[in-house]
Every structure is written in structure tokens, then in C-alpha cells.
Write a structure and sequence with these properties.
338 residues, alpha+beta, nine-stranded antiparallel β-sheet, two-stranded antiparallel ribbon, 23% helix, rod-shaped
Length: 338
């Protein structure tokens, strides 16, 4: 007897094939149902729970992949937001720097436009202009009172004791109403005055320093509104008798003339150049001689009565000698009507 499946010889009466396990029909043993038989024997039973575990592992893998993808997307978006924010900040900073770098006005003429070049036609200074030290300046009343003991008789008594005296009543306190009164410009309320406009092409001078630089030492520098530029006469001697003159855009009833005497570019250069001690001021038909203390200040000369004038001429009288150069210097001249 042989196994119908594998052909192995079986013992008589055998119910199973010892090789393939095939159930041998017959001999009183009913054949196995077809659903339990396969091509190679009985169909093995599936283990319970194995399919669920596989499904769970697949689900867990998908969940972790989704979480990783979400995290990567969040990180990518965050980095993009940071880059965009940084670019906006950088653009804002650049715009702010450009606005600060814009000049507030036209480039000044003369010495202020070329502070590193030579001055007074003698040598290069290499010094930067310094601001006036207001803290070290004595009070106006104290300074004027000190000057009273040393100034000549031409210096009005009302000026030396003015202190808080205003421009409006200074002339009334002067012993001689025919003489001009000199105050510090800080004592004058300029809102009560209108400044005369000077025509640049009418400005002339008796002489001025010339040198190989673009610094302007001509008479216009005394009217250009820049205190660091100045008219510097270039004649031989200490500058006595040298003058600067200019015409206005119309006729004015001049009540006040302001002056900054000497080189106001810095304290050092103020000491080096000659500074006018007295000036002769001519306005129309009127002519005044005025004395000043040696101070790096702006002075206001109040006229005893308005002078009808369409031009001005300022002549240097005596000077305070400088420590190095003998060029008499006037930094600024202003003309006002009430």
C-alpha cells in the first residue's frame, strides 16, 4: 500500500503517511473535509492577534511620521518668519541711518567747509573748531562790571553796569544819549527786530588774506551767517584802518548792529589772530566809534536813534594783538531794524 500523495510505501492498515502526514482513506477512517486540506496537507491555523499587532505597528509608524512631518513644517515656517522679520528690521535700520545721514542744510562756505586746511595764510592748524564753553563764561553783569575799571571813557557807563538791563531801556540809562550802547547779544530780545538782507555781490573789503586753499577770507565771510568763517584783512601791519562794506536789499531804519570780533573758529584761533578793540561803524550819514572788551562773544550795538541806511561800512580801529598772526579778524556782522 502506498500513499496517494507522496508515494511512500505504507504498512497495511496505516491511517497516516509518516512522511507527509496525509490521512489515508479507508480502513474505517473517514476522509478529512476538503476545507482542512491543502495541496501539501492540512492548512495550518493562523495565530490569533498577529494581524492586529501588524495593523497597530503600521498605525503607530504613520502617526510618528505625521508628527515628524508636522514638526519639520513648523520649524521651516518659523525659520522663514525669523528671516523675514530680520530683513524688515535691517531695512528699517538702513532707512533710519539714511535719514540721519541727510544734511540739515547747505554745506557752509569758507573755513567750516575745510577745517583741516591752512588758516590765516600762515600755517595749517589741524585743529577742530570747538564750541563755546558756556559754563566757564562769567555772568554778563560780572564781566561788564570788571571791564568798567579798564575800558576807556568812550565805553558807555550804561553798558558796564547793564546786567539785566534790556535793549529797550539801555539807551535811557546811558549818560550820553548820543552815544551807542553795547550789550551782550544774549541780553537782547531779537523777536523785536528784523535782520537786514545783505547783497553778496555788493560786499567788498580793503584787503583780505589769500592762500592756496578753498577757505574764504573775503568780506562776505563776515556776513554769511557762519561764525566759524571770518573776514581777515591781509594788509601789512595790525589791521588798523582796514574796512569791510556791503549794501542791503533795500533801505532800513537801522537800530542795532551785532558783531563777533576775532576768529571764532575755535578758542585757540581766537587767541592767535588780532581782534578789533574798536570799530568805526558807518550807516548812511551816521558814523559811530565803538569800543569792545576782549571776549569771544557776540555783542549788540544799540544806536541812540534809528539810522536810515541802505549800506554799512565797518572800519577796524585799535586791536588786541594775537599770539601768532597780525591779521585783524571779524567773524560776523549783523544789521537790524526795530
Amino acid at each position: 500500500m502506498f500513499c496517494p500523495k507522496c508515494g511512500m510505501k505504507l504498512q497495511d492498515g496505516a491511517r497516516f503517511c509518516s512522511r507527509c502526514g496525509n490521512v489515508i482513506a479507508g480502513n474505517g477512517v473517514p476522509p478529512m473535509p476538503a476545507m482542512y486540506l491543502g495541496a501539501n496537507g492540512p492548512i495550518p491555523k493562523k495565530k490569533k492577534g498577529k494581524g492586529c499587532l501588524t495593523a497597530f505597528l503600521v498605525f503607530l509608524f504613520l502617526l510618528l511620521a505625521a508628527a515628524a512631518g508636522g514638526g519639520a513644517l513648523y520649524y521651516y515656517n518659523k525659520k522663514n518668519d525669523e528671516v523675514l522679520l530680520e530683513s524688515i528690521r535691517a531695512e528699517y535700520r538702513e532707512d533710519g541711518e539714511d535719514e540721519e545721514a541727510e544734511p540739515e542744510g547747505e554745506e557752509p562756505e569758507g573755513e567750516e567747509a575745510d577745517e583741516g586746511k591752512a588758516d590765516e595764510g600762515e600755517a595749517e592748524d589741524g585743529e577742530a573748531g570747538t564750541k563755546e564753553d558756556e559754563a566757564e563764561r562769567p555772568a554778563a553783569s560780572e564781566t561788564l562790571a570788571t571791564e568798567a575799571a579798564t575800558m576807556p571813557e568812550a565805553w558807555p557807563a550804561a553798558v558796564t553796569t547793564a546786567g539785566a538791563t534790556t535793549a529797550a531801556n539801555a539807551a535811557a540809562t546811558a549818560p550820553d544819549s548820543s552815544e551807542p550802547v553795547v550789550l551782550y547779544a544774549s541780553q537782547v530780545d531779537f523777536s523785536n527786530y528784523r535782520k537786514a538782507a545783505v547783497l553778496k555781490n555788493t560786499v567788498s573789503e580793503s584787503s583780505h588774506v589769500t592762500q592756496n586753499s578753498n577757505i574764504d577770507y573775503t568780506g562776505w565771510s563776515a556776513f554769511d551767517g557762519q561764525i566759524t568763517t571770518s573776514w581777515q584783512e591781509g594788509a601789512a601791519g595790525d589791521g588798523a584802518g582796514e574796512y569791510v562794506q556791503a549794501a542791503f536789499d533795500r533801505e532800513y531804519q537801522v537800530q542795532m548792529v551785532t558783531v563777533r570780533l576775532g576768529n571764532h573758529r575755535s578758542d585757540s584761533w581766537y587767541q592767535k589772530n588780532n581782534t578789533p578793540k574798536s570799530l568805526i561803524i558807518e550807516l548812511g550819514s551816521q558814523r559811530f566809534s565803538v569800543d569792545f572788551p576782549q571776549e569771544k562773544e557776540e555783542f549788540a550795538v544799540l544806536l541812540p536813534q534809528p539810522a536810515e541806511a541802505s549800506d554799512i561800512r565797518v572800519t577796524v580801529g585799535e586791536v588786541y594783538p594775537g599770539t601768532e598772526y597780525d591779521d585783524a579778524t571779524i567773524a560776523e556782522i549783523g544789521v537790524y531794524e526795530a
